[in-house]
Write a structure and sequence with these properties.
Protein name: Lipopolysaccharide biosynthesis protein
Largest sheet: 9 strands, mixed
CATH architecture of one domain: 2-Layer Sandwich
Radius of gyration: 48 Å
InterPro entries: Bact_polysacc_biosynth/exp, P-loop_NTPase
CATH topology of one domain: Bacterial polysaccharide co-polymerase-like
Distance between the termini: 38 Å
Strand order of the largest sheet: 5-13-12-6-11-7-10-9-8
Organism: Streptomyces changanensis
Number of strands: 13
Structural class: alpha/beta
Keywords: Membrane, Transmembrane, Transmembrane helix
Length: about 600
Amino acid sequence: MTHPHGGPAAAGAGPVDDEPDLLRDQFRQLLRYPRLMAGGVLLGLLGGAWLGYSTSDTYVATSDVVLRVPTEDPFNPTIAVEKTLDMNTERQAATSRRTAGRAADELGYEGDPAGFVSGLQVTNPPKSQVLRFSYTDDDPAESARRANALVAAYLADRREQTEQTRDTMIKGLQAQLDPVAKQHDELAEQLEGRSESDAEADYTVKANLLNRITELSNRISKLKALDVTPGKVIRTATPPTSSDGPGWALSLGLGGAVGIALGLLIAWVRLVFDPAARSEGDVARALRAPVLGSLPRTRDTDPLLTEDREESPLAEEYRSIAYRLAYDRRFADRRRLLVAAPRGSSRTAAAVAVNLAASFAETGKRVLIVEAELRRPSLENQLRAREVSRPAWTQDGETDAWPGGRRLTVDAGESGSFELVPGARVRNVARALTSPEMSRLVEEADDPGVTVIVLTPPVFAYADALALVDRVDGVLVVCDPRGVHRSQLARLRDLITGAGGTVLGTVMHRGQQSGGTRRGKGARGQSRGTAGAAAGAAGADAGRSDRDAAGRTDDRGAGGRRAGGGARTGAADGAAHDDPATTMALRAVSPPDRR
Protein backbone atom coordinates (compact mmCIF):
# COMPACT_ATOMS: atom_id res chain seq x y z
CA MET A 1 0.00 0.00 0.00
CA THR A 2 1.35 3.43 -0.91
CA HIS A 3 0.73 6.85 0.46
CA PRO A 4 -1.68 9.04 -1.56
CA HIS A 5 1.36 11.12 -2.57
CA GLY A 6 3.39 8.07 -3.43
CA GLY A 7 5.23 7.56 -0.16
CA PRO A 8 5.19 4.43 1.97
CA ALA A 9 2.26 3.93 4.26
CA ALA A 10 3.09 3.01 7.80
CA ALA A 11 1.10 2.04 10.83
CA GLY A 12 -0.39 5.15 12.26
CA ALA A 13 -0.16 7.08 8.96
CA GLY A 14 -3.73 6.27 8.04
CA PRO A 15 -6.62 8.34 9.33
CA VAL A 16 -7.86 5.75 11.80
CA ASP A 17 -6.23 2.64 13.25
CA ASP A 18 -8.12 -0.58 13.62
CA GLU A 19 -9.62 -1.06 17.05
CA PRO A 20 -7.63 -4.27 17.82
CA ASP A 21 -4.42 -2.42 16.98
CA LEU A 22 -5.38 0.42 19.29
CA LEU A 23 -6.19 -2.00 22.10
CA ARG A 24 -2.89 -3.83 21.66
CA ASP A 25 -1.05 -0.51 21.56
CA GLN A 26 -2.77 0.68 24.75
CA PHE A 27 -2.01 -2.60 26.51
CA ARG A 28 1.65 -2.33 25.56
CA GLN A 29 1.67 1.22 26.88
CA LEU A 30 0.17 0.03 30.17
CA LEU A 31 3.20 -2.20 30.60
CA ARG A 32 5.34 0.94 30.65
CA TYR A 33 4.17 1.54 34.22
CA PRO A 34 5.47 -1.57 36.02
CA ARG A 35 5.78 0.24 39.34
CA LEU A 36 2.14 1.30 39.37
CA MET A 37 1.03 -2.21 38.43
CA ALA A 38 3.32 -3.73 41.06
CA GLY A 39 1.87 -1.29 43.62
CA GLY A 40 -1.67 -2.38 42.73
CA VAL A 41 -0.74 -6.05 43.07
CA LEU A 42 0.93 -5.34 46.40
CA LEU A 43 -2.19 -3.56 47.69
CA GLY A 44 -4.33 -6.48 46.54
CA LEU A 45 -2.09 -9.01 48.29
CA LEU A 46 -2.13 -6.94 51.47
CA GLY A 47 -5.92 -6.81 51.30
CA GLY A 48 -6.07 -10.57 50.75
CA ALA A 49 -3.72 -11.15 53.68
CA TRP A 50 -5.89 -8.94 55.90
CA LEU A 51 -9.00 -10.85 54.78
CA GLY A 52 -7.35 -14.17 55.52
CA TYR A 53 -6.16 -12.98 58.92
CA SER A 54 -9.46 -11.38 59.94
CA THR A 55 -11.54 -14.42 58.97
CA SER A 56 -9.16 -17.15 60.06
CA ASP A 57 -10.71 -17.45 63.56
CA THR A 58 -14.38 -16.70 62.89
CA TYR A 59 -17.04 -19.45 63.08
CA VAL A 60 -20.62 -19.30 61.82
CA ALA A 61 -23.43 -21.43 63.28
CA THR A 62 -26.71 -21.62 61.35
CA SER A 63 -30.27 -22.50 62.35
CA ASP A 64 -33.32 -22.58 60.06
CA VAL A 65 -36.93 -21.91 61.12
CA VAL A 66 -40.13 -22.45 59.11
CA LEU A 67 -42.72 -19.85 60.09
CA ARG A 68 -46.46 -20.44 60.07
CA VAL A 69 -49.57 -18.38 60.67
CA PRO A 70 -52.15 -19.27 63.39
CA THR A 71 -54.91 -21.60 62.13
CA GLU A 72 -57.93 -23.37 63.61
CA ASP A 73 -57.31 -26.84 62.20
CA PRO A 74 -54.13 -27.27 60.18
CA PHE A 75 -55.13 -30.88 59.30
CA ASN A 76 -58.54 -30.01 57.86
CA PRO A 77 -58.04 -29.04 54.19
CA THR A 78 -61.54 -27.61 53.97
CA ILE A 79 -60.82 -24.88 56.49
CA ALA A 80 -57.07 -24.53 56.08
CA VAL A 81 -56.33 -21.34 54.20
CA GLU A 82 -52.94 -20.57 52.75
CA LYS A 83 -51.66 -17.32 54.17
CA THR A 84 -48.49 -15.46 53.25
CA LEU A 85 -46.23 -13.79 55.78
CA ASP A 86 -44.35 -10.55 55.25
CA MET A 87 -40.86 -12.05 55.48
CA ASN A 88 -39.11 -8.67 55.43
CA THR A 89 -41.05 -7.66 58.56
CA GLU A 90 -40.22 -10.98 60.21
CA ARG A 91 -36.51 -10.48 59.45
CA GLN A 92 -36.57 -7.10 61.15
CA ALA A 93 -38.38 -8.57 64.14
CA ALA A 94 -35.79 -11.36 64.39
CA THR A 95 -32.92 -8.84 64.54
CA SER A 96 -34.72 -6.42 66.85
CA ARG A 97 -33.43 -5.27 70.21
CA ARG A 98 -36.43 -6.95 71.84
CA THR A 99 -35.40 -10.40 70.57
CA ALA A 100 -31.76 -9.72 71.45
CA GLY A 101 -32.66 -8.69 74.98
CA ARG A 102 -34.76 -11.79 75.52
CA ALA A 103 -31.94 -14.08 74.28
CA ALA A 104 -29.35 -12.20 76.35
CA ASP A 105 -31.45 -12.64 79.51
CA GLU A 106 -31.72 -16.35 78.81
CA LEU A 107 -27.94 -16.75 78.37
CA GLY A 108 -27.04 -14.38 81.18
CA TYR A 109 -25.32 -11.91 78.85
CA GLU A 110 -24.55 -8.78 80.90
CA GLY A 111 -23.55 -6.45 78.07
CA ASP A 112 -25.59 -4.28 75.75
CA PRO A 113 -28.12 -6.34 73.73
CA ALA A 114 -27.05 -4.38 70.65
CA GLY A 115 -23.57 -5.89 70.99
CA PHE A 116 -25.10 -9.32 71.50
CA VAL A 117 -26.99 -9.15 68.21
CA SER A 118 -24.07 -7.65 66.25
CA GLY A 119 -22.91 -11.09 65.12
CA LEU A 120 -26.39 -12.14 63.94
CA GLN A 121 -27.43 -12.25 60.31
CA VAL A 122 -30.97 -13.27 59.34
CA THR A 123 -31.77 -14.12 55.72
CA ASN A 124 -34.77 -15.45 53.85
CA PRO A 125 -34.20 -17.95 51.03
CA PRO A 126 -36.19 -16.93 47.94
CA LYS A 127 -39.81 -18.09 47.62
CA SER A 128 -39.96 -19.63 51.09
CA GLN A 129 -41.23 -18.90 54.60
CA VAL A 130 -37.90 -19.91 56.14
CA LEU A 131 -35.72 -17.64 58.24
CA ARG A 132 -32.04 -18.55 58.44
CA PHE A 133 -30.28 -17.41 61.60
CA SER A 134 -26.46 -17.21 61.18
CA TYR A 135 -24.33 -16.17 64.12
CA THR A 136 -20.60 -15.35 63.82
CA ASP A 137 -18.26 -15.61 66.80
CA ASP A 138 -14.68 -16.47 67.64
CA ASP A 139 -15.83 -19.53 69.64
CA PRO A 140 -17.67 -22.22 67.61
CA ALA A 141 -19.63 -23.49 70.63
CA GLU A 142 -20.66 -19.98 71.63
CA SER A 143 -21.80 -19.18 68.09
CA ALA A 144 -24.10 -22.24 68.09
CA ARG A 145 -25.41 -21.47 71.57
CA ARG A 146 -26.25 -17.89 70.72
CA ALA A 147 -27.84 -18.83 67.39
CA ASN A 148 -30.18 -21.31 69.12
CA ALA A 149 -30.93 -18.82 71.89
CA LEU A 150 -31.90 -16.14 69.38
CA VAL A 151 -34.14 -18.59 67.50
CA ALA A 152 -35.87 -19.62 70.72
CA ALA A 153 -36.25 -15.99 71.81
CA TYR A 154 -37.73 -15.04 68.44
CA LEU A 155 -40.22 -17.93 68.43
CA ALA A 156 -41.18 -17.29 72.05
CA ASP A 157 -41.71 -13.63 71.38
CA ARG A 158 -43.76 -14.40 68.29
CA ARG A 159 -45.92 -16.87 70.25
CA GLU A 160 -46.36 -14.39 73.03
CA GLN A 161 -47.43 -11.69 70.62
CA THR A 162 -49.93 -14.05 68.98
CA GLU A 163 -51.40 -15.17 72.31
CA GLN A 164 -51.74 -11.60 73.48
CA THR A 165 -53.58 -10.72 70.31
CA ARG A 166 -55.86 -13.77 70.69
CA ASP A 167 -56.62 -13.03 74.34
CA THR A 168 -57.37 -9.43 73.53
CA MET A 169 -59.82 -10.50 70.83
CA ILE A 170 -61.50 -13.05 73.13
CA LYS A 171 -61.82 -10.41 75.84
CA GLY A 172 -63.45 -8.04 73.41
CA LEU A 173 -65.90 -10.63 72.13
CA GLN A 174 -66.75 -11.68 75.69
CA ALA A 175 -67.45 -8.06 76.52
CA GLN A 176 -69.95 -8.00 73.67
CA LEU A 177 -71.48 -11.33 74.63
CA ASP A 178 -72.20 -10.62 78.31
CA PRO A 179 -74.76 -7.78 77.85
CA VAL A 180 -76.48 -9.64 75.04
CA ALA A 181 -76.78 -12.79 77.17
CA LYS A 182 -78.07 -10.74 80.13
CA GLN A 183 -80.69 -9.05 77.95
CA HIS A 184 -81.72 -12.43 76.57
CA ASP A 185 -82.15 -13.87 80.06
CA GLU A 186 -84.24 -10.93 81.21
CA LEU A 187 -86.49 -11.13 78.17
CA ALA A 188 -86.89 -14.87 78.67
CA GLU A 189 -88.16 -14.26 82.27
CA GLN A 190 -90.66 -11.71 81.02
CA LEU A 191 -92.03 -14.09 78.43
CA GLU A 192 -92.61 -16.98 80.84
CA GLY A 193 -96.28 -17.94 80.87
CA ARG A 194 -97.11 -15.94 77.82
CA SER A 195 -98.00 -17.51 74.52
CA GLU A 196 -96.13 -16.78 71.34
CA SER A 197 -99.21 -15.27 69.73
CA ASP A 198 -99.68 -12.78 72.58
CA ALA A 199 -96.00 -11.54 72.49
CA GLU A 200 -94.94 -12.14 68.93
CA ALA A 201 -92.68 -9.09 68.79
CA ASP A 202 -90.89 -9.99 72.00
CA TYR A 203 -90.30 -13.53 70.77
CA THR A 204 -88.76 -12.09 67.59
CA VAL A 205 -86.34 -9.95 69.66
CA LYS A 206 -85.52 -12.98 71.77
CA ALA A 207 -84.66 -14.99 68.64
CA ASN A 208 -82.36 -12.24 67.35
CA LEU A 209 -80.59 -12.04 70.69
CA LEU A 210 -80.10 -15.78 70.66
CA ASN A 211 -78.58 -15.67 67.17
CA ARG A 212 -76.17 -12.92 68.29
CA ILE A 213 -75.20 -14.95 71.34
CA THR A 214 -74.56 -17.97 69.18
CA GLU A 215 -72.40 -15.97 66.74
CA LEU A 216 -70.27 -14.43 69.48
CA SER A 217 -69.90 -17.74 71.26
CA ASN A 218 -68.74 -19.44 68.05
CA ARG A 219 -66.11 -16.75 67.44
CA ILE A 220 -64.87 -17.05 70.99
CA SER A 221 -64.68 -20.81 70.65
CA LYS A 222 -62.69 -20.56 67.44
CA LEU A 223 -60.22 -18.15 68.99
CA LYS A 224 -59.77 -20.43 72.00
CA ALA A 225 -59.16 -23.36 69.67
CA LEU A 226 -56.65 -21.38 67.52
CA ASP A 227 -53.20 -23.02 67.07
CA VAL A 228 -50.71 -20.26 67.87
CA THR A 229 -47.50 -22.22 67.14
CA PRO A 230 -45.18 -19.58 65.62
CA GLY A 231 -43.00 -21.96 63.61
CA LYS A 232 -40.83 -25.03 63.59
CA VAL A 233 -37.07 -25.35 63.82
CA ILE A 234 -35.95 -27.47 60.89
CA ARG A 235 -32.22 -27.14 61.57
CA THR A 236 -30.65 -26.63 64.96
CA ALA A 237 -27.36 -24.78 65.11
CA THR A 238 -24.38 -26.97 65.97
CA PRO A 239 -20.78 -25.88 66.69
CA PRO A 240 -19.00 -25.49 63.30
CA THR A 241 -15.92 -27.61 62.73
CA SER A 242 -14.06 -25.10 60.53
CA SER A 243 -13.75 -21.35 60.27
CA ASP A 244 -15.96 -19.41 57.92
CA GLY A 245 -13.11 -17.53 56.20
CA PRO A 246 -11.97 -18.35 52.64
CA GLY A 247 -8.55 -19.47 53.88
CA TRP A 248 -5.12 -18.03 53.30
CA ALA A 249 -4.62 -19.50 49.83
CA LEU A 250 -7.96 -18.31 48.47
CA SER A 251 -7.64 -14.92 50.19
CA LEU A 252 -4.21 -14.31 48.67
CA GLY A 253 -5.44 -15.53 45.27
CA LEU A 254 -8.43 -13.19 45.36
CA GLY A 255 -6.22 -10.36 46.59
CA GLY A 256 -3.75 -10.96 43.77
CA ALA A 257 -6.50 -10.97 41.14
CA VAL A 258 -8.02 -7.78 42.54
CA GLY A 259 -4.52 -6.28 42.78
CA ILE A 260 -3.82 -6.98 39.10
CA ALA A 261 -7.11 -5.33 38.15
CA LEU A 262 -6.31 -2.40 40.44
CA GLY A 263 -2.81 -2.05 39.01
CA LEU A 264 -4.15 -2.06 35.45
CA LEU A 265 -6.75 0.54 36.42
CA ILE A 266 -4.14 2.81 38.04
CA ALA A 267 -1.81 2.41 35.05
CA TRP A 268 -4.69 3.16 32.66
CA VAL A 269 -5.61 6.32 34.58
CA ARG A 270 -1.96 7.35 34.54
CA LEU A 271 -1.83 6.68 30.79
CA VAL A 272 -4.98 8.71 30.14
CA PHE A 273 -3.59 11.74 31.93
CA ASP A 274 -0.04 11.35 30.61
CA PRO A 275 0.53 14.04 27.96
CA ALA A 276 3.74 12.46 26.63
CA ALA A 277 3.77 10.50 23.39
CA ARG A 278 4.58 7.05 24.71
CA SER A 279 4.55 4.98 21.53
CA GLU A 280 5.03 5.06 17.78
CA GLY A 281 1.27 5.12 17.39
CA ASP A 282 0.99 8.30 19.48
CA VAL A 283 3.69 10.03 17.46
CA ALA A 284 2.23 8.91 14.12
CA ARG A 285 -1.28 10.02 15.07
CA ALA A 286 -0.11 13.39 16.38
CA LEU A 287 2.03 14.21 13.32
CA ARG A 288 -0.17 12.32 10.84
CA ALA A 289 2.99 10.90 9.33
CA PRO A 290 4.65 7.48 9.52
CA VAL A 291 7.45 6.61 11.91
CA LEU A 292 10.31 5.83 9.53
CA GLY A 293 12.61 4.35 12.13
CA SER A 294 13.45 3.98 15.79
CA LEU A 295 17.11 4.34 16.74
CA PRO A 296 18.46 1.74 19.18
CA ARG A 297 19.91 2.90 22.46
CA THR A 298 23.60 3.73 22.66
CA ARG A 299 25.78 5.07 25.42
CA ASP A 300 26.19 8.81 25.59
CA THR A 301 29.99 8.39 25.56
CA ASP A 302 30.01 6.42 22.31
CA PRO A 303 31.66 8.24 19.40
CA LEU A 304 29.31 9.60 16.80
CA LEU A 305 31.09 7.46 14.22
CA THR A 306 31.40 3.83 15.18
CA GLU A 307 34.53 2.08 14.03
CA ASP A 308 33.00 -1.35 13.38
CA ARG A 309 30.06 -1.28 10.94
CA GLU A 310 29.81 -4.97 10.08
CA GLU A 311 27.20 -5.87 12.68
CA SER A 312 25.90 -2.41 13.59
CA PRO A 313 22.12 -2.34 14.08
CA LEU A 314 22.31 1.45 14.22
CA ALA A 315 23.83 1.64 10.75
CA GLU A 316 21.16 -0.66 9.31
CA GLU A 317 18.46 1.46 10.91
CA TYR A 318 19.84 4.55 9.18
CA ARG A 319 19.94 2.67 5.86
CA SER A 320 16.33 1.59 6.35
CA ILE A 321 15.27 5.21 6.98
CA ALA A 322 17.15 6.38 3.88
CA TYR A 323 15.53 3.72 1.69
CA ARG A 324 12.05 4.56 2.92
CA LEU A 325 12.66 8.22 2.15
CA ALA A 326 14.05 7.38 -1.26
CA TYR A 327 10.88 5.50 -2.21
CA ASP A 328 8.61 8.27 -0.94
CA ARG A 329 7.57 10.19 -4.05
CA ARG A 330 7.14 13.42 -2.09
CA PHE A 331 10.87 13.32 -1.31
CA ALA A 332 12.13 11.57 -4.45
CA ASP A 333 10.66 14.22 -6.77
CA ARG A 334 12.55 17.14 -5.12
CA ARG A 335 15.23 15.48 -2.92
CA ARG A 336 15.17 18.32 -0.39
CA LEU A 337 15.03 17.32 3.26
CA LEU A 338 14.90 19.46 6.39
CA VAL A 339 15.90 17.67 9.60
CA ALA A 340 14.85 19.18 12.92
CA ALA A 341 13.93 18.24 16.47
CA PRO A 342 10.86 19.67 18.20
CA ARG A 343 12.68 20.79 21.33
CA GLY A 344 15.77 20.19 23.45
CA SER A 345 19.09 19.57 21.76
CA SER A 346 19.69 19.23 18.01
CA ARG A 347 22.54 16.75 18.57
CA THR A 348 20.48 13.70 17.62
CA ALA A 349 19.02 15.55 14.62
CA ALA A 350 22.61 16.27 13.50
CA ALA A 351 23.46 12.59 13.85
CA VAL A 352 20.44 11.64 11.73
CA ALA A 353 21.26 14.22 9.06
CA VAL A 354 24.91 13.14 8.77
CA ASN A 355 24.13 9.41 8.67
CA LEU A 356 21.36 9.89 6.10
CA ALA A 357 23.86 11.84 3.98
CA ALA A 358 26.27 8.90 4.19
CA SER A 359 23.46 6.49 3.32
CA PHE A 360 22.46 8.48 0.23
CA ALA A 361 26.13 8.78 -0.73
CA GLU A 362 26.30 4.97 -0.63
CA THR A 363 23.67 4.81 -3.36
CA GLY A 364 25.71 7.01 -5.69
CA LYS A 365 24.08 10.34 -4.95
CA ARG A 366 25.89 13.61 -4.51
CA VAL A 367 24.76 14.84 -1.11
CA LEU A 368 25.01 18.33 0.31
CA ILE A 369 24.40 19.07 4.01
CA VAL A 370 23.59 22.68 4.85
CA GLU A 371 24.09 23.44 8.53
CA ALA A 372 21.46 26.11 9.18
CA GLU A 373 22.35 26.15 12.87
CA LEU A 374 23.81 29.68 12.96
CA ARG A 375 23.67 30.25 16.69
CA ARG A 376 25.86 27.34 17.84
CA PRO A 377 27.42 25.78 14.73
CA SER A 378 29.44 22.66 15.44
CA LEU A 379 29.53 20.25 12.50
CA GLU A 380 32.79 21.60 11.09
CA ASN A 381 34.60 20.75 14.30
CA GLN A 382 32.89 17.38 14.58
CA LEU A 383 33.58 16.02 11.09
CA ARG A 384 36.84 15.16 9.37
CA ALA A 385 36.53 17.35 6.30
CA ARG A 386 38.60 19.37 3.88
CA GLU A 387 37.69 22.55 2.08
CA VAL A 388 36.92 22.51 -1.64
CA SER A 389 36.48 25.30 -4.14
CA ARG A 390 33.55 27.60 -3.68
CA PRO A 391 30.52 27.19 -5.93
CA ALA A 392 30.48 29.13 -9.15
CA TRP A 393 27.87 31.60 -8.01
CA THR A 394 30.14 32.74 -5.14
CA GLN A 395 33.16 33.43 -7.28
CA ASP A 396 31.88 36.77 -8.52
CA GLY A 397 31.18 38.30 -5.12
CA GLU A 398 33.93 36.55 -3.17
CA THR A 399 31.85 37.06 -0.10
CA ASP A 400 32.60 35.47 3.21
CA ALA A 401 29.07 35.93 4.48
CA TRP A 402 27.21 32.70 5.23
CA PRO A 403 26.38 30.60 3.31
CA GLY A 404 28.55 31.66 0.40
CA GLY A 405 31.87 31.52 2.10
CA ARG A 406 33.01 27.90 2.38
CA ARG A 407 32.17 24.37 1.31
CA LEU A 408 33.76 21.23 2.78
CA THR A 409 34.04 17.64 1.62
CA VAL A 410 33.44 15.02 4.31
CA ASP A 411 35.01 11.58 3.94
CA ALA A 412 32.47 8.91 4.93
CA GLY A 413 34.81 5.98 4.52
CA GLU A 414 33.55 3.13 2.37
CA SER A 415 30.25 4.95 1.98
CA GLY A 416 31.89 7.61 -0.13
CA SER A 417 31.81 11.31 0.65
CA PHE A 418 29.38 14.19 0.86
CA GLU A 419 29.62 17.94 0.97
CA LEU A 420 29.00 20.21 3.92
CA VAL A 421 28.20 23.88 4.10
CA PRO A 422 29.16 24.52 7.74
CA GLY A 423 27.22 26.94 9.85
CA ALA A 424 28.72 30.19 11.04
CA ARG A 425 27.70 32.83 13.53
CA VAL A 426 26.01 35.74 11.80
CA ARG A 427 24.64 39.03 13.00
CA ASN A 428 21.19 38.58 11.44
CA VAL A 429 20.08 34.94 11.34
CA ALA A 430 16.74 35.56 9.64
CA ARG A 431 18.39 37.54 6.81
CA ALA A 432 21.01 34.83 6.26
CA LEU A 433 18.41 32.04 6.13
CA THR A 434 16.26 33.91 3.61
CA SER A 435 19.15 35.19 1.49
CA PRO A 436 19.44 34.44 -2.25
CA GLU A 437 22.57 32.41 -1.55
CA MET A 438 20.59 30.07 0.69
CA SER A 439 17.98 29.68 -2.03
CA ARG A 440 20.72 28.76 -4.54
CA LEU A 441 22.05 26.09 -2.18
CA VAL A 442 18.63 24.47 -1.88
CA GLU A 443 18.07 24.71 -5.64
CA GLU A 444 21.08 22.45 -6.21
CA ALA A 445 18.66 19.59 -5.57
CA ASP A 446 17.11 20.39 -8.97
CA ASP A 447 19.98 18.34 -10.39
CA PRO A 448 18.67 14.73 -10.50
CA GLY A 449 21.89 13.44 -8.98
CA VAL A 450 21.96 15.77 -5.97
CA THR A 451 20.25 15.52 -2.57
CA VAL A 452 20.19 18.48 -0.18
CA ILE A 453 19.78 17.99 3.56
CA VAL A 454 19.26 21.06 5.76
CA LEU A 455 19.90 20.85 9.51
CA THR A 456 18.16 23.43 11.70
CA PRO A 457 17.84 24.15 15.43
CA PRO A 458 14.83 22.77 17.36
CA VAL A 459 11.58 24.17 16.00
CA PHE A 460 10.17 25.29 19.35
CA ALA A 461 13.44 26.97 20.33
CA TYR A 462 13.89 29.12 17.21
CA ALA A 463 11.84 29.84 14.09
CA ASP A 464 14.80 29.03 11.79
CA ALA A 465 13.20 25.81 10.52
CA LEU A 466 9.95 27.55 9.68
CA ALA A 467 11.86 30.13 7.64
CA LEU A 468 13.19 27.32 5.41
CA VAL A 469 10.17 25.01 5.25
CA ASP A 470 8.70 26.64 2.15
CA ARG A 471 11.98 26.06 0.26
CA VAL A 472 12.81 22.56 1.45
CA ASP A 473 9.20 21.28 1.63
CA GLY A 474 9.91 17.87 3.17
CA VAL A 475 10.57 17.79 6.92
CA LEU A 476 11.95 14.88 8.95
CA VAL A 477 11.14 15.20 12.65
CA VAL A 478 13.64 13.67 15.11
CA CYS A 479 12.20 13.30 18.60
CA ASP A 480 12.26 11.37 21.85
CA PRO A 481 8.57 10.49 22.38
CA ARG A 482 8.95 10.64 26.15
CA GLY A 483 10.35 14.15 26.00
CA VAL A 484 7.59 15.79 23.98
CA HIS A 485 3.85 16.04 24.51
CA ARG A 486 1.28 14.86 22.00
CA SER A 487 -0.16 18.38 21.88
CA GLN A 488 3.30 19.75 21.04
CA LEU A 489 3.66 17.28 18.17
CA ALA A 490 0.26 18.30 16.82
CA ARG A 491 1.25 21.96 17.11
CA LEU A 492 4.55 21.19 15.34
CA ARG A 493 2.66 19.68 12.44
CA ASP A 494 0.37 22.71 12.25
CA LEU A 495 3.39 25.01 12.17
CA ILE A 496 5.08 23.02 9.40
CA THR A 497 1.99 22.70 7.21
CA GLY A 498 1.08 26.32 7.89
CA ALA A 499 4.51 27.36 6.61
CA GLY A 500 3.98 25.41 3.38
CA GLY A 501 5.88 22.24 4.24
CA THR A 502 5.09 18.53 4.62
CA VAL A 503 6.04 16.16 7.42
CA LEU A 504 7.56 13.20 5.60
CA GLY A 505 8.01 11.11 8.72
CA THR A 506 9.55 10.76 12.13
CA VAL A 507 12.73 9.23 13.49
CA MET A 508 12.28 8.21 17.10
CA HIS A 509 15.01 7.76 19.67
CA ARG A 510 15.11 7.05 23.37
CA GLY A 511 17.10 8.74 26.08
CA GLN A 512 20.59 7.32 25.83
CA GLN A 513 22.16 5.16 28.49
CA SER A 514 24.81 6.86 30.55
CA GLY A 515 28.23 5.33 30.75
CA GLY A 516 31.71 6.04 32.00
CA THR A 517 34.26 7.93 29.95
CA ARG A 518 36.17 5.62 27.65
CA ARG A 519 39.57 6.48 26.29
CA GLY A 520 40.31 6.29 22.64
CA LYS A 521 40.86 8.39 19.56
CA GLY A 522 38.09 10.69 18.46
CA ALA A 523 37.49 12.57 15.24
CA ARG A 524 40.67 14.66 15.45
CA GLY A 525 42.95 12.75 17.72
CA GLN A 526 40.98 13.80 20.80
CA SER A 527 40.10 11.40 23.56
CA ARG A 528 37.02 9.40 22.73
CA GLY A 529 35.13 10.97 25.62
CA THR A 530 35.76 14.37 24.03
CA ALA A 531 34.99 13.15 20.55
CA GLY A 532 31.78 11.59 21.83
CA ALA A 533 30.60 15.06 22.76
CA ALA A 534 31.39 16.13 19.20
CA ALA A 535 29.38 14.69 16.35
CA GLY A 536 32.15 13.26 14.15
CA ALA A 537 29.91 12.14 11.33
CA ALA A 538 32.10 10.54 8.71
CA GLY A 539 35.74 10.03 9.68
CA ALA A 540 37.42 7.62 7.30
CA ASP A 541 40.53 5.50 7.28
CA ALA A 542 43.51 6.84 5.37
CA GLY A 543 44.56 5.20 2.15
CA ARG A 544 41.48 5.71 -0.03
CA SER A 545 40.59 8.46 -2.45
CA ASP A 546 37.70 10.89 -1.95
CA ARG A 547 34.77 11.48 -4.18
CA ASP A 548 35.08 14.67 -6.11
CA ALA A 549 32.48 17.45 -6.11
CA ALA A 550 30.68 15.97 -9.12
CA GLY A 551 30.05 12.73 -7.25
CA ARG A 552 32.51 10.48 -9.11
CA THR A 553 33.23 7.12 -7.56
CA ASP A 554 36.52 6.47 -5.81
CA ASP A 555 39.36 4.48 -7.34
CA ARG A 556 38.96 1.60 -4.86
CA GLY A 557 36.09 -0.14 -6.42
CA ALA A 558 32.55 1.02 -5.88
CA GLY A 559 32.21 0.62 -9.60
CA GLY A 560 28.47 0.19 -9.72
CA ARG A 561 27.75 3.55 -8.01
CA ARG A 562 28.13 6.72 -10.09
CA ALA A 563 26.97 10.25 -9.65
CA GLY A 564 25.02 10.11 -12.87
CA GLY A 565 22.64 7.47 -11.55
CA GLY A 566 19.80 9.91 -11.01
CA ALA A 567 17.11 7.31 -11.64
CA ARG A 568 18.37 5.25 -8.70
CA THR A 569 17.34 7.76 -6.07
CA GLY A 570 16.80 5.37 -3.23
CA ALA A 571 18.87 2.20 -3.43
CA ALA A 572 22.03 0.66 -4.71
CA ASP A 573 21.86 -2.61 -6.61
CA GLY A 574 21.64 -5.86 -4.64
CA ALA A 575 25.24 -6.83 -5.19
CA ALA A 576 26.57 -3.56 -3.92
CA HIS A 577 24.30 -3.67 -0.89
CA ASP A 578 25.37 -7.19 0.00
CA ASP A 579 29.05 -6.40 -0.44
CA PRO A 580 30.77 -6.50 3.00
CA ALA A 581 32.88 -3.50 2.06
CA THR A 582 29.74 -1.53 1.28
CA THR A 583 28.06 -2.61 4.50
CA MET A 584 31.07 -1.51 6.50
CA ALA A 585 31.22 1.80 4.71
CA LEU A 586 28.37 3.69 6.36
CA ARG A 587 29.48 5.48 9.49
CA ALA A 588 26.78 5.84 12.16
CA VAL A 589 26.28 8.82 14.38
CA SER A 590 25.06 7.81 17.80
CA PRO A 591 22.14 9.97 18.97
CA PRO A 592 22.73 10.89 22.59
CA ASP A 593 20.04 13.01 24.13
CA ARG A 594 21.20 16.16 25.89
CA ARG A 595 18.58 18.29 27.53
